[in-house]
Automatic annotation (TrEMBL):
InterPro entries: Beta-barrel_TonB_sf, FecR_C, Plug_dom, Plug_dom_sf
Protein name: TonB-dependent receptor
Residue ranges of every copy of the TonB-dependent receptor plug domain listed in the record: 150-224
Pfam families attached to this UniProt entry: FecR_C (PF16344), Plug (PF07715)
A single GO cellular-component term on record: cell outer membrane
Organism of this sequence: Neotamlana nanhaiensis
Cellular localization per UniProt: Cell outer membrane
Main location: membrane
Keyword Membrane: yes
Length: 786
């Protein structure tokens, strides 16, 4: 029996062992209040917070399962003589009751109902609108992660996968990464990763909340046909100084919340890599993974060329200024700067003379925003926001042997104004409406010295979006309906199209919930690959803008390809069972995207240089089984099936063939253990190999080209990775708390092939190029909070 088989058997036994449900207590017997509260948390998907002395020695009979949450709280207050205060996301604080307070006078704030708290681990919550909410400050632990990296964390969700292990290539239900809408404080981000994709570019220690939508997206979100990842920072002034500083084997960071006055506050964070100062085993593994198939590594392998003096670093900086002009008027300013930079010298001896030139790659996303919120009445509020997001990718590549210099640049300028209005009629009806105007300009530059060639293309597009939706929550909180639509107008193309959105949730038989989600969406920006060695072969993708052209336009200095507006349709239906911290969830979905181009799909086979416009169709199912025990142990198993096929008019004779991102089967087993200050997580990830195309056995070795088999008719070997992580928190002083952590990515050091392709050498021999995933990669961290 090999080691991989033993690991799989261990996870199966571990999961089956901890998934055995506990025996139930007779509901007619009086039980300790603390025990009653645990059962109510599971039944009503709520969370109680209290001091042990508050509920000590109080006994209670379990109330009826049919009463509403409002009546449940009144019942508990009457029977216990305690005060139950309802907070955000149905969190309830229990305190000693005030003498003058009576339950008949209490008010309850109607909030979104939580379906599952501690979804997989603490800090992850599933809501009844179909979305998933992450709260990094309450984050527990996940296998392989010792810090709450936002874009790594969401990959633990069923239906979310990165087939090359990066946060810059996240596939949500088969979509490409550029089809994900990433928002930071309402600002669209065009860069998501550090280390060219291996680390999230967003500091998790300043992020308060992340909302993730795979379907049934709110009408206020335009763009991003695959998913929405909406990151929010704290938005209230606490008048309390907080700070934190920490490091791991890749970077160091610091953050602070600084009260400036009773009405103003400043939130700051900064992170800087250690990679240009200290070389660690973690850095070496990441460096090998990122640059293994780039011009940088190829230069090192060239007998006549030596690459040296490489300098690589990354950093990010964020700032948020909060000003409460009055109780009703709030002003917020935001700033973000994300940077990746690589420089290296390329040396060679030509005609007995030493030559050295510097190649470089820089990737930057800078954003600035101002937002004004007005609370007109307790029921009506509005928010106006203006932002600018600028993305810049620059590369200078020298080839000394061939006396070649290539300069490339991809720049995005996004200026957007938004108005969002929320009206709460009562605890059952809410309304949301708004308007968004965006002006996006994207330019692409290529400049070659030998032969002299320069191409510069810039396109600008202005779009208008109007949206409205209504929320209905039944009195007993069992039925939730969100119905809305978005109207997009593109004047340059004379295009107007509507995008209906639906979210329906119905709880029945107390522990079951039926859910239907649907949406129409579109996007005008996408990423394409012109050549695999663009931008030093490291960040090959460049942003382009929809131009609504019907044919290729060629001039003396440029080629303009048609880029349609991408449109998608998706519908899903799911059923969830949740009782006593035992969750079984199954969701099936259908998804179709039209207007994709072959340039956006990263073909490395016979279609690499062929242009066509097509679509993809996806059928899939996501299944999750999650069992928790008293917030100490959480175990889960998930399975995703995905059938994802292209259809292009010219490619493969118009017949469907597998999508490059198609991962047909994916399975995860994982478990976490939390005991006071100690946390431990262990997980196994397996998925079938992604599609690939092999050369044909009938290939003619003398025709200077490779003859391939049918496109994506083969798959890479299956992928298997085991991860573990652990953290321990302790007090350094009365005011300082510390956390130390350690993790190992790919514990078994499996050699996973994440991509392959074929090239011809000078003798017309076919060479097979394979890209490997990260090998065994340890990391440690230390953090202090004040």
């Amino acid at each position: 029996m090999n080691s991989n088989t033993r690991v799989i058997i261990f996870f199966l036994l571990f999961f089956l062992k901890v998934a055995t449900p506990y025996a139930q207590t007779n509901k007619k017997d009086k039980q300790p209040l603390a025990q009653i509260l645990k059962q109510l948390e599971a039944s009503y998907q709520i969370r109680f917070s209290f001091a042990d002395d508050t509920v000590k020695n109080k006994m209670l009979t379990l109330p009826s399962e049919d009463i509403s949450l409002e009546h449940l709280i009144i019942f508990l207050e009457e029977k216990t003589q305690l005060d139950f205060e309802l907070l955000d996301d149905r969190f309830i604080i229990i305190r000693e009751a005030e003498a003058e307070k009576s339950s008949s006078k209490r008010t309850i704030e109607t909030l979104e109902e939580v379906i599952v708290t501690n979804y997989l681990t603490s800090g992850i919550t599933k809501l009844n609108d179909g979305s998933i909410t992450l709260k990094p400050d309450a984050f527990g632990i996940l296998p392989g992660l010792i810090e709450p990296d936002v874009l790594q964390t969401i990959q633990a969700l069923p239906g979310v996968l990165s087939n090359d292990e990066t946060v810059s290539n996240i596939n949500v239900r088969g979509g490409t990464h550029d089809q994900n809408l990433l928002l930071w404080e309402g600002i669209k981000m065009y860069q998501s990763g550090h280390f060219f994709g291996l680390i999230s570019a967003f500091n998790p220690y300043t992020t308060k909340r992340v909302n993730v939508y795979k379907n049934g997206t709110r009408a206020k979100y335009g763009d991003g046909i695959s998913s929405v990842i909406d990151m929010e920072l704290p938005n209230t002034i606490n008048n309390e100084f907080k700070a934190g500083i920490g490091f791991n084997l890749l970077n160091t960071d610091a953050n602070a919340t600084i009260p400036l006055s009773k009405k103003t506050e400043l939130q700051l964070s900064a992170r800087r890599s250690l990679t240009d100062a200290v070389s660690t085993s973690t850095y070496n593994q990441y460096f090998k993974r990122v640059f293994q198939d780039s011009d940088f590594s190829k230069g090192k392998n060239n007998a006549n060329t030596i690459s040296q003096n490489e300098n690589f670093y990354f950093y990010d900086f964020t700032a948020k200024f909060l000003y409460d002009i009055s109780e009703k008027d709030h002003l917020r300013f935001h700033f973000l700067n994300v940077q990746n930079s690589l420089n290296y010298d390329e040396q060679s001896t030509i005609n007995n003379e030493n030559e050295a030139l510097n190649s470089s790659l820089s990737q930057n996303n800078m954003a600035i925003s101002g937002a004004y919120t007005r609370h007109w009445t307790p029921k009506l509020e509005s928010t106006a926001q203006i932002y600018v997001s600028n993305y810049d990718l620059d590369a200078t590549n020298f080839d000394i042997i061939n006396d070649l210099r290539l300069i490339q640049e991809n720049e995005v300028y996004d200026g957007t104004a938004k108005l969002d209005i929320n009206y709460t009629h009562n605890h059952q009806f809410k309304f949301n409406a708004g308007y968004q105007f965006s002006e996006i300009g994207i330019s692409n530059l290529a400049d070659v010295n030998n032969p002299v060639f320069r191409s510069y293309i810039k396109e600008v597009l202005r779009t208008h979006g109007l949206y409205a939706e209504t929320h209905f929550l039944s009195h007993n909180a069992k039925t939730k309906i969100i119905l809305g639509s978005r109207l997009n107008v593109i004047n340059e193309f004379n295009m107007i199209f509507a995008e209906p959105r639906l979210s329906f949730s119905q709880r029945f038989l107390n522990y079951f919930r039926f859910e239907v989600l649907g949406e129409f969406k579109s996007q005008t920006t996408s990423q394409v690959i012109d050549l695999q060695n663009d931008f030093l072969g490291i960040e090959k993708r460049r942003w382009v803008l929809a131009n609504n052209q019907s044919e290729i336009i060629e001039t003396d200095d440029q080629t303009i390809f048609p880029n349609p507006v991408i449109k998608s349709k998706q519908v899903s239906a799911g059923i969830h069972f949740n009782k006593n911290q035992f969750l079984v969830s199954a969701e099936a979905y259908l998804k179709k995207a039209d207007g994709i181009t072959s340039r956006s799909q990263g073909f490395q086979n016979q279609y690499q240089f062929i242009y066509d416009i097509g679509s993809y169709n996806i059928k899939g199912i996501d299944v999750l089984v999650n069992k928790q025990f008293s917030n100490i142990i959480s175990t889960w198993a998930s399975y995703s099936y995905n059938s994802n096929n292209y259809k292009f008019d010219s490619l493969n004779y118009g017949n469907p063939f597998p999508n490059n991102a198609n991962i047909e089967h994916a399975i995860t087993f994982a478990g976490t253990y939390t005991n006071n200050s100690f946390k431990f997580a262990l997980g196994l990830n397996w998925h079938s190999g992604k599609p690939t195309t092999h050369p044909s056995v009938t290939d003619n070795p003398n025709d200077d080209q490779i003859t391939y088999e049918a496109p994506n008719s083969a798959t890479l070997p299956d992928y298997l990775r085991t991860d573990c992580s652990a953290t321990y928190a302790f007090n350094m002083s009365d005011d300082a708390k510390a956390t130390v952590g350690a993790s190992i990515w790919n514990v078994l050091n499996n050699k996973n092939i994440i991509n392959n392709y074929y090239t011809l050498d000078n003798d017309n021999n076919i060479n097979k190029i394979e890209n490997e995933s990260l090998g065994i990669t340890p990391n440690v961290s230390f953090r202090v909070r004040f």
